[in-house]
Amino acid sequence: MAEAEGQETESLEESTDESEEEESEEEPKLKYERLSNGVTEILQKDAAGCMTVHDKFLALGTHYGKVYLLDVQGNITQKFDVSPVKINQISLDESGEHMGVCSEDGKVQVFGLYSGEEFHETFDCPIKIIAVNPHFVRTSCKQFVTGGKKLLLFERSWMSRWKSCVLHEGEGNIRSVKWRGHLIAWANNMGVKIFDVTSKQRITNVPRDDISLRPDMYPCSLCWKDSVTLIIGWGTSVKICSVKERHASEMRDLPSRYVEIVSQFETEFYISGLAPLCDQLVVLSYVKEVSEKTEREYRARPRLDIIQPLPETCEEISSDALTVRGFQENECRDYHLEYSEGESLFYIVSPRDIVVAKERDQDDHIDWLLEKKKYEEALMAAEISQKNIKRHKILDIGLAYINHLVEKGEYDIAARKCQKILGKNAALWEYEVYKFKEIGQLKAISPYLPRGDPILKPLIYEMILHEFLESDYEGFATLIREWPGDLYNNSVIVQAVRDHLKKDSQNRTLLKTLAELYTYDKNYGNALEIYLTLRHKDVFQLIHKHNLFSSIKDKIVLLMDFDSEKAVDMLLDNEDKISIKKVVEELEDRPELQHVYLHKLFKRDHHKGQRYHEKQISLYAEYDRPNLLPFLRDSTHCPLEKALEICQQRNFVEETIYLLSRMGNSRSALKMITEELHDVDKAIEFAKEQDDGELWEDLILYSIDKPPFITGLLNNIGTHVDPILLIHRIKEGMEIPNLRDSLVKILQDYNLQILLREGCKKILVADSLSLLKRMHRTQMKGVLVDEENICESCLSPILPSDAAKPFSVVAFHCRHMFHKECLPMPSMNSPAQFCNICSAKHRGPGSAILELKK
């Protein structure tokens, strides 16, 4: 439970505290503080009898007949000696300029706080209540009501005289009254009435539920939520009443308004006061409990509850027990609940104490979260409401959160939170790093250190790197990879790594890390040596990135041993930096690597490495025979005699056959195919490629006594050599496998050739006819002859300047034109005329297509 801490405690209070000592995990809705300063001084000598609240000030009435005006901090601003006995009630209008006071000796005073107008009257009975019209400041609203044995309404007439009328009497003392707008609500011993000042009608009577309670000991509590909603609390019962307009058809002799009870429910304790809070209610309750030790009933601390009204019940939102001074002696009637509508302030008034309850703000919410050690929620709440919080700083909450996590041993979470909480504050970062160092948790904070904005002192980063270097090589290597090299003194870390390598010189992690450090320090030569020693995949990237080709000229063998494919690609891509000659020289003692390099060079460009083609013959023969024949076919620079010698020495038949063929010795090549390979199909294919009649004759002669060869020839020879030549030479009686099928194939091939020839002939004839028709259509077209045309013989205009003169023009289909007299006379043997120009250029004769005469 949230408590307003008291300065005085009694034995009975302590017993009450024991029952409340377990605090709820639910956050309270309100916070409490004592109204002190002048109030403390007043209540040391006097007792509070009543109080009313205005937005600007407070008015307190005491048992000794004094009325004090107070500011919201409890400081006395004015004092009025009204009566020698208890002040029963004080009423203020909405403007706060007029006050009404009534006391136990029957005195009633209504006066202006800033004006001279006054009303004084002393009645013959105690006046329990008074209420001035909320709009009393207006001339037309100079009204107030008083209540003792009867309820009187006082109005000032036009002559400035006060007249009174009785609104109600005969049902006991009037003990409570509230005026809102045009409606006056009051309570007597029988129930609650509402009077409409405008229509001069009483519009309802709400009877009291529990008549067993003494109305003087358990008075009714009234409050207006708005101008038409009245809340009634009496005993343990709460009723919410709504004033509504009656329909004109229902009026008759009834009041123009009526009251509907929209909610009604019971509470656990006796009600001492009510106040609205948005759509909820604040209820001050008087509590009696039975002691477990003595089994006697005692007065417990009053409670302030926030409840959510429902139609027939209510839901408790929060409940706070209040430790007010002297609560052990107070009765239900001694407590009052007043409130300020504008600021949601609630004043719990008792004879010896006044406690102010107010809604908790975001600072209070954060206070509660911090008290409950809910730091993350507190941090989130502060970030969301950073413009509204006044007492807290996000940074302070964050630092407290980090300290809390460290105390719990959650070092990784604490380190991770540093990123968000410390932000760009380098000084705080360095402070936290030293704090983590003190508890031996530098490793925990290392992943989260800032690396750009801000940058901490180099000593901080070096301290963490040394910590990892002493205990975790892999973690050290990770930090070196992730941290930029300018965060720390590189030479210091290099020396530290080298010192550790003296103890463990083969540690690959340290060697690799040292290479990275050398790279940061632009000491690429040392880095390259380490990478090559480790055969690390990043060696090629290092060479490319930092253009280290001058440093690898004597390390080509190491690179090739590590990854020959990547090394060759790199060397070939950078021939301008490392020449082919240099690479070949470096690989002289490693012919197998030399071959890999030259082979890939040849694949890229057949001519770049032509000076090494002779060498490559031996390299292919030794290390890569499958690619020897393709090399011989593609190379135009290798010496054939040398190649033939090597192939014959190694008995490479196919390569020898190719070389013999390329050197023009086709018969020797064919002989090797037939005698060495015994492959009739290859022999036939070779003969086809050479397309040499003598070669076919040699093949037939070699095959004539070999039936399998004859079968192969019969199956394939038909399209190149007349099969009859072979068939005539076959000895009678020789058994030839699949002879029938071979003969059938020969006949089929022959028929196919005939069909192909006939098809080709038809196509040729059709094409010729089509072209002839096209030529005929073209020659039938006219030819334009105008002044721009010239005679191709005399080069003068083809048309005479004088159109009246007779002329004769010959135009050929080739579009050349001549004067007829410029053409040679046709001979008797060849009467046709041809274009002189086209005939001279062997373009074919053009015949005259048109002769123009005039």
UniProtKB/TrEMBL annotation:
One GO MF term: zinc ion binding
SMART domains registered for this protein in UniProt: CLH
Subcellular location: Cytoplasm, Cytosol; Early endosome membrane; Endosome membrane; Late endosome membrane
UniProt membrane topology term: Peripheral membrane protein
Listed Gene3D superfamilies: Tetratricopeptide repeat domain, YVTN repeat-like/Quinoprotein amine dehydrogenase
Annotated PROSITE patterns: CHCR (PS50236), ZF_RING_2 (PS50089)
Keyword Methyltransferase on entry: no
Acidic residues composition bias: residue spans: 1-26
Biological processes, Gene Ontology terms: cellular response to starvation; endosomal vesicle fusion; macroautophagy; protein targeting to vacuole
Transmembrane domains' residue ranges: none
Keywords: Autophagy, Cytoplasm, Cytoplasmic vesicle, Endosome, Golgi apparatus, Lysosome, Membrane, Metal-binding, Protein transport, Transport, Zinc, Zinc-finger
Keyword Membrane: yes
Classification via Pfam families: Beta-prop_Vps41, TPR_Vps41, zf-RING_Vps41
RING-type domain location: 791-839
Main location, first listed in the record: cytoplasm
Cellular-component GO terms for this entry: clathrin-coated vesicle; cytosol; early endosome membrane; Golgi apparatus; HOPS complex; late endosome membrane; lysosomal membrane
CHCR repeats: from-to residues: 568-712
InterPro entries: Beta-prop_Vps41, Clathrin_H-chain/VPS_repeat, TPR-like_helical_dom_sf, Vps41, Vps41/Vps8, WD40/YVTN_repeat-like_dom_sf, WD40_repeat_dom_sf, Znf_RING
Region: Disordered, residue numbers: 1-33
Coiled-coil parts of chain: none
Role of this protein: Plays a role in vesicle-mediated protein trafficking to lysosomal compartments including the endocytic membrane transport pathways.
Entry similarity comment: Belongs to the VPS41 family.
Protein name as it appears in the record: Vacuolar protein sorting-associated protein 41 homolog
Natural source organism: Lynx pardinus
